[in-house]
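Hi V.,

You were right to ask for the full record rather than a summary. Here it is.
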Amino acid sequence: MNAIKGTASNRDTSTAVGRLYKPGATQGGVAKELGVTSSQLKTWRLEIEAAGSMAAVRRQQADAAEPDRLRKENKRLKLENEILEKASAFFASRAAKT
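Predicted structure:
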């Protein structure tokens, strides 16, 4: 399977790296099967692992930022509600005068 050689798509590299996790698979053996160097296969594995780590970090940051976002939204909604209550009272008092 020399389709991996040269420029490879993300799916091809993911498939190649996935072979590393099969029981008994070695980096050198998988690289030889695919017609790539062992160092290239290692580079792909590290890139995929780093991308997974970055995705996890982004999810953690988003999760950490959510309570702050919700507090700000809650504050804004309370302010809007207060304004609407005052407007309602204002217009109700004007309607009562007429």
